[in-house]
Amino acid sequence: MGKVIAGATLSVDGFMADRNGDLSQLYPDLETLRFTDQLEESIRTTGAVLMGRRAYTMGDPETIADNYEYQIPIFVLTHSVPEQLPRENERLAFTFVTDGIESAMRQAKAAAGEKDVTVVGGASTFQQCLSAGLVDELHIDVMPVLLGDGLRLFGRQAAELPRLERLAVMELPAGRTHISFRIVK
Ligand SMILES: NC(=O)c1ccc[n+]([C@@H]2O[C@H](COP(=O)([O-])OP(=O)(O)OC[C@H]3O[C@@H](n4cnc5c(N)ncnc54)[C@H](OP(=O)(O)O)[C@@H]3O)[C@@H](O)[C@H]2O)c1
């Protein structure tokens, strides 16, 4: 059985998008990131991806299937299936899950089999996974930038927060620092 890994790229002050929803300062290395050992390893070990509807809409439904780094089943948490269904290919299929985070995770795990499920965001989906105790590891990339305001990955959470144990730290190009944590259960 694989793990559930929730990953995000953050500014030093903890934002996953700036106040305008822009991610460019967090991904100046978008072209080269795909070729880092860290992402290659994630692509090799991930069997299904889980994302929220807003993260999904960042991509173009016509071209996302062939351009997305993870060529595997993708599960999108949403209240409604989009009218324009995205184009798929023989490896990447989309499933729009309308009955909640637990169901989305159950389906993603079944599709992933022995491999990992990677949760790629956004904040709402990430937080729901964490609050429901569905995450085994957090993989946080910190970029050397302060955004001042924007979308926080971690808001004020009423639920008890889990204890973390650091697993590894990796220095990547473009000032990116990858830190992985195990969630102590
Ligand atoms: N820095 C990074 O690593 C990174 C990565 C990914 C995304 N992002 C940023 O994160 C932003 C999106 O984050 P977000 O928190 O706003 O949204 P999100 O988690 O991507 O998606 C939220 C949406 O998913 C659906 N949803 C969430 N929970 C649900 C539930 N329990 N049942 C049914 N549907 C549910 C709802 O959409 P509907 O009601 O429309 O169906 C909701 O509006 C993006 O705009 C992007 O800027 C950053």
Task: Report strand order across the widest sheet.
Answer: 5-4-3-6-1-7-10-9
Supply the number of helical segments: 6
Low-confidence stretches: none
First-residue to last-residue Cα separation: 17 Å
Element pattern in H and E: EEHHEHHEEHEHEEEE
Shape: globular
Overall pLDDT, averaged?
95
The distinct ligands, each listed once, are: NADP nicotinamide-adenine-dinucleotide phosphate
Q: Give the tally of β-strands.
A: 10
- The helix fraction, in percent, is 10-25%
Give the strand content: 25-35%
State Rg: 16 Å
| Major sheet attributes | 8 strands, mixed
Structural class: alpha/beta
Care to describe what's here?
With 185 residues, the protein is of the alpha/beta class. It has six helices and ten strands. The strands form two sheets. Strands 5-4-3-6-1-7-10-9 form an eight-stranded mixed beta sheet. Strands 2-8 form a two-stranded antiparallel ribbon. It is globular and about 35 Å long. The mean pLDDT is 95. The site of NADP nicotinamide-adenine-dinucleotide phosphate (NAP) has 26 residues, from strand 1, strand 2, helix 3 and helix 6. The site of NADP nicotinamide-adenine-dinucleotide phosphate has 26 residues, from strand 1, strand 2, helix 3 and helix 6.
Short characterization:
The chain has 185 residues and is of the alpha/beta class. The chain is built from six helices and ten strands.
List keywords for this structure.
185 residues; alpha/beta; eight-stranded mixed sheet
